[in-house]
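Listing S7. Sequence submitted for prediction.
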Amino acid sequence: MNPHVALKAYASSLSLYERSEILDYPDVYFVGQNAQKVASSPELSGCNFGFDDERGDYNVINNDHLCYRYEIVESLGKGSFGQVLKCLDHKTGEYVAVKIIRNKKRFHCQALVEVKILECLNRWDPDDSHNIVHMDDHFYFRNHLCIVFELLSMNLYEFIKRHDFQGFSLGLIKRFCVQLLNSLSLLQKHNIVHCDLKPENVLLKHPTKSSIKVIDFGSSCFENEKVYTYIQSRFYRSPEVILGMTYNMAIDMWSLGCILAELYTGYPLFPGEGEQEQLACIMEIQGIPERYLIEKSTRKKLFFDVNGNPRPVVNSKGKRRRPGTKTLQSVLKCQDEVFLDFISRCLHWDPEKRMKPDEGLMHEWITDVKLSVSD
């Protein structure tokens, strides 16, 4: 409908605020006529006329509209950035996921970077073959930037949990890995760092199939436009980020190695309680990093003494982790040498020596082809 027709038909269902707001929309698909509308008022300027809570999050009301087009069905999740909702697009008749960014300047600025990256990824992946979430649209609604995505299924953490943290077969893990390498290969080609690769940010397309997509580019950046020095979720955080070294796309390959190990065992490989113990968890399996890497670190005094020895860390259970006392093989309880080799190449201390996505796609574990020494 055009807004004047919609206003005439649904005036009694609209709030006073909406009766003027609706006229700004050339097309009206849905007005949320059965929703308990927010008691918005021009006097409530402090909380965005009553549409926001004190945190700057949009006050979500199920069955209400976004932009006179999307019907809010349910919440899919919430984070520091804002919230994600399952919505019905009344223009297309399809369900979508809508990310509503918090009405605060720093989250809005970062979301603009996310939109820019997603627009590029849509352009670079026109046939949707790189296992990266597709952005359908973005718009402003009541001072909130909203980003519309295809609707996907559960994330890999939920998938692991649904299988009682028992881990998965190497065959299934390999299918996931090929798709993740496919995503990272495109990102690498265009110098994008995801910065938050973890099981929660890898979604199944369908609950009973193994197709996946990488989501959440809210922390991502172009390699030459890095904004943050401290990124990545702790269990999947690369040592160069912990140590305050310069970082690049190699941090995502570190996260991939951690994810693969977790898919195999059902549990995080490096479950540090804080950043000190996180590095201790890494050193317990990977040993102490070489001196030249420690010297590049801007935060080395937090983790090492003047002689380069790790500072002792005791966790809440009174446990102290000692460098080099465990092997990847023993922690994973895995005998598959080729799989172990793949993960250890993702977990190289030196980011320059860490495996790259395209090298990963050529690795023996992925190809099942053993390379000879001359190769």
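Caption to Listing S7: primary sequence and predicted structure tokens for the chain studied. DSSP finds 14 helices and ten strands in the chain. The first helix runs from residue 3 to 10.
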